[in-house]
Amino acid sequence: MTAEELMTQDFGTLAELIAAQGRERPGHLALVDGERTLDYAGLNQLMDQIAAALQRDGVAPREAVAICATTSLEYAAVFMGALRAGAAAAPLAPSSSPESLVMMLKDCGSRLFFVDKAVAQALAGVAGDISARLIALDGSDVGQPFEDWLAEAGAQPASVMVEPNDPFNIIYSSGTTGAPKGIVQPHAMRWGQVRRGIYSVDSVTMISTPLYSNTTLVSFLPTLGNGGTAVLMPKFDAEAFLKLSQKHRATHAMLVPVQYRRIMERPDFDTYDLGSYVLKFSTSAPFAPEVKADVLKRWPGGLIEFYGMTEGGGSCMLVAHEHPDKLHTVGKPMNGHDIRLIDEDGKEVPQGHVGEVVGRSGAMMVGYHNQPGKTRDAEWYSPEGLRFIRTGDVGRFDEDGFLTLMDRKKDMIISGGFNIYPSDLELELGKHPDVLESAVVGVPSDKWGETPVAYVTLRPGRAISAEELKAWMNARVGKTQRLADLVFMDTLPRSHIGKVLKKDLRDDYKGPALGG
Asked: Between the chain's N and C termini, which has fewer beta carbons within 10 Å?
């Protein structure tokens, strides 16, 4: 069956699509990693070798294959090879603590662990707790070298039957605090993403976020499934991104908001030829309206923002180039996605009211791996008995059906019985010419229960005192919204996909007593 015929099927697998691309476009570039490249014939053969080696080592269908390393050709090939063997890829974040990595490795049950030297060295202190056999993707001496582990060229893995609800991958969430949760995403969910029609054989996609992030996979996987070219960046750098985009005539990119900000702030941005761009995407963190507007003004091609969760459920899409008056929103629910807002009692709220966002679609996680209790906590059932996924985000639909996010439910500040949305205060702070970005959190207060504190980074070369900025801010907001403190930082702490780590800010606050 051809790739085009496969794409008309209600269900198929990415491994089948890669095989079809290898037959039909063997010399077309699939992966670019610096000066190294892999065409579809080479990728297809390497996937066969990896799958055969996994099966040789006893990896059964639906078992997990753990990978923890910097993005590379080998990393991408192992992910795909695991799928061909019928296994589920379990990409783990190297930024996690060694203890969390051990927990994730034990939870997924992988018998093999694909790493590079940096990861193996970070795990040296907990090596005794790791039973999985280490395979060194970079050929280093920290495990069996990848090339030695591979099955011989021409090896053919046993054929595997894959069902729509079989696990495609396990993405671990919250690996930096508490027990990590393994989000099991099925093949049916990924098949739907591949068939969206966004990418084609002519697509050249910049992959500048890590392969262990769902943000990356929703762009990387459809690019390969549709026969395009993925340009891998082991580490993001704004200048390198622009140079690679120009060199490879990039057509697509998935970037998180902080990356857009860093790119647009470069004084030489307008000197690069980015005219090949067709579409750019963003997700994973709040995207400032003024940065969206700047991207629309100066970067060729359209801009689309996705709002959703790794767990799946309902997603929204803002086609920013078609709705420049809605840049403060995350758009409307996508086709086939049912998004509703509920109150604290689980009742749907009327249109225009604020509530927690819950969503339902064909793209939903099976559940959290080995954690049925947490799975139940993440679910909401409608009066009709339909299963939704709770986001933990608070939002409101406007009269045109566009969703405006207020905040994470857990980040909302309740001060003296009043709800304070940090995003409102951050938006107001952003209007000051000296402010680059800010994060507002609630800290304990004897008098009010909680009270807002702002962490602020200033634009280069700007000088204003914290007291002056706080006074300016408090003169512009309501009495209950006034800041109790304002702290300057060089940079805000962020996760690997650019989310501000507000819990860290709350936990680390060492300001004055806030009893008054």
From this structure: C
